Amino acid sequence: MDIQLKRGLLDACVLAAIKDEDSYGYQIIKDMKPYLELSESTLYTILKRLETAGMLTVKSVEHEGRLRKYYHITRQGLGRIEEFKEDWKEIESIYRFITREDARNE
Amino acid sequence: MDIQLKRGLLDACVLAAIKDEDSYGYQIIKDMKPYLELSESTLYTILKRLETAGMLTVKSVEHEGRLRKYYHITRQGLGRIEEFKEDWKEIESIYRFITREDARNE
DNA sequence: TGGTATACATCGTAACGCGAAGTATATCGC
DNA sequence: GCGATATACTTCGCGTTACGATGTATACCA
Fold first, then answer.
1. For residue A30, what is the domain's CATH number?
2. Which residue range is the domain that position B45 belongs to?
3. Strand C positions closer than 7 A to protein CB
4. What pLDDT does residue B105 have?
5. Considering its fold, how many domains does chain A have in total?
6. Per 3-state DSSP, what percentage of chain A is helix, strand, and coil (rounded to 5)?
7. B81, B88, B97 member nearest A16 (Cβ)
8. Per residue in A44-54, pLDDT tens?
9. Between the CA of A54 and the C1' of D30, what is the distance in angstroms?
10. pLDDT of B101 over the 90 cut
11. Minimal CA–CA distance to A35: which of A13, A8, A61?
12. pTM across the whole model
């Protein structure tokens, strides 16, 4: 898929991946894979950005000797998803503009 | 609208604006305005990029003493729009992932 | 004469995705 | 026992891109 197109979906998609249940990096990538593939470097950059923006909180948990960072969505993060839904209406209108048939033949 | 979301639509949208009839910068901005607003600097950057990529061709025409650059879509440009349509299927699937109801309550 | 519309161009900046490389542990096949 | 693979997170640098600011130039209207 076109990278530019992907960009606009990434933040909302990551937030959606943790919205029902706290999750961690590796798991998020696996959950998103059927819909949208992203590299680790991309995900961790996004998670850091969303944390800074107050969209999620982080909690480190010991798991089999290793550190695991669990991400929890905040009210702001849920709001971000709602914003995406609002934007979606505009996107659909743009989609119709792009895919419309030749206006001269209508 | 979210800038990142806009990014993925811009190229296809500009191509769609000239696909039925050759057009020029100022006119393209006006045609797109109801759907997607963009600044002149952004549009001319995009047009230059699409030209380099072979998606459109340019023809300078004298108009009331001033130079006007008409843009004409190529077969490649039309192909780019078709690609967008293909990507759209994936985007819809991602949209459903983002807006799905809590899986634990289903 | 000043404001607005038309029309295109260039520069610098900041945001962002991502490949590459690194660190570290656990598990599994040979 | 040892290499491969999976898990898990981090950092760096690069290239692409949208856009504000600014500039140039003409036409028209009040």
1. 1.10.10.10
2. 3-104
3. 6-11, 16-22, 24-27
4. 62
5. 1
6. 60, 15, 20
7. B97
8. 999 999 999 99
9. 52
10. no
11. A13
12. 0.90
Confidence of residue B66 (pLDDT cuts 50, 70, 90): confident
Q: Which of B32, B36, B94 sits opposite A36 (nearest CB)?
A: B94
* CB within 8 Å: B8 and A6: yes
Looking at this protein, which amino acid is placed at residue A60? S
pLDDT tens per residue, range A20-41: 999 999 999 999 999 999 999 9
The residue type found at A28 is I
Q: For B49-68, give one letter per residue: b (16+ CB within 10 A) or e.
A: ebbeeebbeeeeeeeeeeee
Task: Note whether B11 and B80 are within 8 A (CB).
Answer: yes
Protein residues with beta carbon less than 7 Å from any atom of strand C: A 3, 6-7, 10-11, 38-42, 45-46, 49, 64-66; B 4, 24-27, 40-41, 44-45, 47, 63-64, 66-69
**C-beta separation of B68 from B60 below 8 A:** yes
Dist CA B57 CA A47 (whole Å): 41
Residues of chain A with Cβ-Cβ distance to B102 below 8 Å are 19-20
pLDDT band for position A103 (50/70/90)?
low
